[in-house]
Write a structure and sequence with these properties.
Residues 191-291 form the Fe2OG dioxygenase domain. This protein has 341 residues and is an alpha+beta fold. It contains 8 helices and 14 strands. The protein has helices spanning 48-64, 77-92, 95-98, 137-140, 151-176, 257-262, 317-326, 331-335; strands at residues 38-40, 67-71, 110-114, 128-135, 193-200, 212-215, 221-225, 233-237, 240-243, 251-255, 272-274, 282-289, 296-297, 315-316.
């Protein structure tokens, strides 16, 4: 079991974690003057008076960035902080207590691993992660760890609240596209809820390492709690990277490949990555809204016509997952499988 969270404190980066010079983040251009748009959901209770404005803001942010942050979303800061804390406490447990959960079996409802499955080079990412299937809760809760002792209770509560929040965002997006507000409420969003909890310990030299490779998400949308310990998430914007600065209690929302395909390219799935830092451990929790495995994915008929023909062919979501894995999460590589032109 090789985990970054189990390593001793190093003054230099071990060789296996050092990236070639051309792949190091220090060589990329970062635009420090641009910040992601921030959407205020007014406490999560969106009345008719403010709804149109919120929808306009979401669509504007989505079309330009593919990302936005959400504040006043109706989920308490305590609920988010409790989830971040219980996950951090899991990674801090002694190695022998974590070892039973270490696995490469992607079919498990809970497993622990390190680096990333999508990079086949010998260089390792400075990252440990948990992959959790968290919904339906009653189906998977017995496969979650019993330590820390409050883990199951906290995860159950967080799952329900974030699932409700994601559904709300999808309804607003559907309205903004001119679709029925429940367009995404069927098989497009009724797959199992999955979470990826990323843990990035302090790194002696962040300029040599990566936390997570540039990639786009395979699902419909992602809701990310990134804590406030340090900035680590970066998103691609006009061929440069921008920092996604943590806002206390906020969620970062980004679009996955399925939303780009269903909207026929109106909304984009945007590349993002994670950097390391030298001072503090950073934890983030990505909650993924997934289609069912047998869901038929295609551009919405309401969004295509003679002037805007479909850009993507129809496919079954499980076939997309195979293509995503084959392309090693590369944005253009995976979309090439499904483009019509």
């Amino acid at each position: 079991m090789e985990l970054v969270s189990n390593l001793p404190v190093y003054r230099t980066v071990p060789e296996k974690y050092i990236f070639p010079p051309d792949k190091r983040p220090a060589n990329d251009t970062v635009n420090h003057s641009i910040n992601l748009p921030v959407i205020d959901l007014k406490g999560g209770c969106i009345d008719s008076d403010g709804r149109d404005e919120i929808i306009r803001d979401i669509m504007k942010a989505g079309k330009e960035f593919g990302f936005f942050q959400v504040i006043n979303h109706g989920i308490s800061t305590k609920t988010i902080d409790n989830m971040l804390e219980v996950c951090e406490n899991f990674f801090k447990m002694p190695a022998q207590e974590k070892e039973p959960y270490y696995s490469n079996d992607m079919s498990k409802a809970f497993f622990l691993n390190s680096s990333t499955q999508y990079d086949k080079s010998q260089t390792r990412y400075w990252r440990d992660y948990l992959r959790i299937t968290s919904y339906p809760i009653e189906e998977f809760i017995d496969q979650w760890p019993e330590k820390p002792e409050e883990f199951r209770e906290v995860l159950s509560k967080y799952t329900l609240r974030v699932r409700e929040f994601a559904s709300k965002i999808l309804k607003l997006i559907a309205e903004g596209l001119g679709l029925d507000k429940d367009y995404f409420s069927g098989d497009l969003s009724k797959g199992n809820i999955k979470m990826e909890v990323n843990y990035y310990p302090p790194c002696p030299d962040p300029s040599l390492t990566m936390g997570l490779l540039p990639h786009c998400d395979r699902q419909l949308i992602t809701v990310l709690a990134q804590g406030t310990a340090a900035t680590g998430l970066q998103a691609k914007y006009k061929q440069k990277w921008i920092n996604v600065k943590p806002i206390p209690g906020a969620f970062v929302v980004n679009f996955g490949h399925q939303l780009e395909i269903v909207t026929n390219g109106i909304l984009k799935s945007v590349e993002h990555r994670a950097l390391t830092n030298s001072t503090v451990a950073r934890t983030s929790i990505a909650t993924m809204t997934m289609p069912t495995m047998d869901c038929l994915i295609a551009p919405a008929k309401e969004l295509v016509n003679e002037k805007n023909p479909p850009m993507y062919k129809e496919f079954i979501f499980r076939d997309f997952i195979k293509a995503y894995d084959a392309a090693l999460a590369n944005r253009e590589g995976v979309l090439e499988f499904f483009k019509l032109y």
